[in-house]
Amino acid sequence: MVHRSLRTALCSVVGLLAGVTLGPLLAPDPTGLLAAALAVVAAVAVGGVLHRSTWLRTAE
């Protein structure tokens, strides 16, 4: 459906948005280092899962 680099960028942006949202929600102190670490973990997890899925892939 879309070019590979655009798909990678979209997955990264969606992952970052999810990480920024979920990191502070899951941490007891939303301004601490744990919240930042959880945000990074959530961003990598969501972005990775989306990138490996069939979301926006071309039919081959």
**Structural class of the helices, strands and pairings?**
mainly alpha
Taken in chain order, the helices and strands follow as HH
Q: Count the DSSP helices.
A: 2
What is the approximate shape? elongated
- What Rg do the Cα atoms give? 13 Å
Rounded to the nearest angstrom, the distance between the terminal CA atoms is 10 Å
User: How much of the residues is beta strand, in percent?
Assistant: under 5%
Main sheet?
none
Could you estimate the helical fraction of the residues in percent?
Answer: over 70%
What average pLDDT do the residues reach?
Answer: 91
* Strand count: 0
Poorly predicted runs are none
Can you give a write-up of this model?
With 60 residues, the protein is mainly α. It contains two helices and no strands. The protein has helices at 4-26, 33-52. The chain crosses the membrane at residues 32-50. Keywords: Membrane, Transmembrane, Transmembrane helix.
Task: Please write out the topology.
Blueprint: H1 4-26, H2 33-52
Helix pairs in contact: 1-2
Give a summary of the structure in a few sentences.
Keywords: Membrane, Transmembrane, Transmembrane helix. With about 60 residues, the chain is mainly α.
Descriptors for this entry?
60 residues, mainly alpha, membrane, transmembrane, transmembrane helix
